[in-house]
Amino acid sequence: MKKWLAPLVVVAMSIAGCTSKVPAVQSSASPRTPASQAVQHSPVGQPGQSAPTESIVPSQLQMVDEAIGWATTGDGVFRTSDGGRIWTSVNPPDFGPIATGAGSRIVPPGYFYGQENAWVVGPTVVDKDSKGSTPVFYTHDGGQTWQRTTVAAGQFQIAAFSDAQHGWGFTEAHATAMGIYTLFRTQDGGATWTQIATNRYGVKDNFPGVYMITGFTFRNESDGWATGRVRDVPLLWLYRTQDGGATWREQALALPAELKERPITTGQVRFFDQQNAMLQVTGRCSDTEECLSLYHSTDAGATWHGTTLLKYSAAGSFSYDFIDADRGVATDGDKVYTTADGGQHWTASAPNISLKGIKTLDFTTPATGWAVTESQLLKTTDGGLTWAPVMFNTGSPR
């Protein structure tokens, strides 16, 4: 079973420089909200009643272990309990895909915590006064039943959960080089959400300024980290809270020399247990190469130390995953890179097929992993050397 805690999954379409397991968040406008805003809650009962039968490529895949996993597609939310042989539709009632202008359908990525807990958001509803609200659906029994709540904010996104009860979400808008963020918190599993921080102009400024947030991670209900990207500046943007997100302070870390000349992206902090954590930084280190720099902490994020750089082709997308603090796999589509010492050393190999267009790598053991590309769902059982296409077969709903 995977040991890292509280992965971030937010509404996202792209990331500057690479595609990782934790993508950058999509820009979206949101209306102004009051300093404290609770939400309404109502039960909604059983999951949806239909499931597609064709094989499709999931837009999001997260395996909890070798048997149980979650996925989202243009048709909604799915769950497997047999290692991906059959995917069962577990859509909340009245929850469906969002039509796009191109004639396709999307479902905003969900946030999944363990085998039983999931949260997904629906499309924002705007009332006659141009005030937005966002429906949030949540389950604590693996999708067998869902509850619905409404956050009085447009384009609300789920950010992180430290356990099944304590979670954070946010809204985002952009004004030139600065992102405008409002942070919310739940302490009852998603039933109610309260605004706790913002960097919105003219409102109490208790969240730091940044161009784009790339991740939130909380080790427990108090101790958390925010990571982001500063536009056109090679700055490692890392902030920490120790009061559940009400206040934040910067954590200054030095960059490798190769990443000091061009803009970089600070990726999400990952915790493998309560003490061991990892932070990733990516950026262009030459005209043809991108670099991945990993920072490790063994004292719950109090101090960090860097590793050697992994250099890979800047021509395509990039994704990586770590099974634990030592063992990881990465790919730029042409090569598969593996490490057994937390990124101090990497071994490059040529996979049996191209992984071009890689969107997600997800390993549950050093041998067993999944890959989602732009056109295929793939699986490996030998650590990434050999990949085979997998049919995303959907079964009947529970």
Can you walk me through this structure?
- With 398 residues, this protein is mostly beta strands.
- Helices cover 0% and strands 41% of the residues.
- It has no helices and 34 strands.
- The chain has strands spanning 40-45, 60-63, 69-73, 76-80, 87-89, 98-99, 105-106, 111-113, 117-121, 125-126, 132-139, 146-151, 157-161, 167-175, 178-186, 194-198, 212-218, 224-229, 237-241, 249-250, 264-271, 277-284, 289-297, 305-306, 310-313, 319-322, 328-331, 336-339, 347-349, 358-363, 369-373, 377-380, 388-389, 394-395.
- Strands 1, 8, 9, 10, 11 and 12 form a 6-stranded antiparallel β-sheet that branches. It has a 5-stranded mixed β-sheet with strand order 2-3-4-5-34, with no helix packed on it.
- The protein is globular.
- The two termini are 25 Å apart.
- Mean pLDDT is 84; it is low at 3-53.
